[in-house]
Design a protein that fits this description.
Number of helices: 9
Helix content: 55-70%
Radius of gyration: 21 Å
Structural class: mainly alpha
InterPro entries: DUF7342 (IPR055766), WH-like_DNA-bd_sf (IPR036388), WH_DNA-bd_sf (IPR036390)
Pfam families: DUF7342
Strand order of the largest sheet: 1-2
Strand content: under 5%
Shape: flat
Distance between the termini: 59 Å
Length: about 180
């Protein structure tokens, strides 16, 4: 591929969506705070319109702004994302028993990693990468397991919440039920 040629996926994305849509998609998928310039670059749009979209998202409570560092950054409201994911899980057609089994599976997987590596967290596992006796494949494996472990930790919290609040998260069809 030519360096000046846009990435195939990004080119398709640019042709099929508006700049505002792309900024929204990028902003809602952030896993860490990012600057307007970074988001604009990822969305393939210019700085000023990206900033306007981000400010609207902040006003709507969808994205948060952090001005405490040297550069203003934006990130999704992770609480809102967790609640939306909990509602999606509740509405997915899974039973509470199936989710309970999935929760047990995730916890069992983490216990296996704790036993295998004699660590208690993904970061402790990352810390084992300083071992000079590890080959490149084992380092890659441990990095991937640490990422998966961190992901499972987040999922455990959300799935646990869904199980605990199963009745509360049930969709209602009666507006009186929802407001009462």
């Amino acid at each position: 591929m030519d360096e000046d040629e846009p990435h195939t996926d990004r080119g398709y994305l640019t042709r099929q969506t508006t700049g505002e849509d792309r900024v929204r998609m990028v902003a809602l998928q952030l896993s860490e705070p990012r600057t307007v310039n970074w988001i604009a670059d990822e969305a393939g749009w210019s700085h000023e319109p990206t900033k306007r979209v981000l400010e609207r998202l902040v006003d709507d409570g969808i994205v948060r702004r952090d001005e405490s560092g040297t550069h203003t950054t934006y990130y999704p409201d992770y609480r809102r994302q967790a609640m939306q994911e909990a509602m999606r899980l509740r509405d997915s057609g899974h039973t509470v028993e199936e989710l309970t089994d999935r929760l047990a599976d995730m916890k069992a997987q983490i216990r296996e990693w704790e036993d295998e590596f004699d660590v208690e967290s993904p970061n402790q596992l990352r810390g084992t990468l300083t071992d000079d006796t590890l080959d490149v494949d084992e380092e890659d494996r441990r990095r991937e397991i640490a990422r998966e472990w961190a992901h499972l930790d987040r999922r455990i919290h959300i799935v646990g919440f869904v199980i605990r609040e199963w009745d509360f998260l049930a969709p209602t069809t009666d507006p009186a039920e929802a407001s009462g």
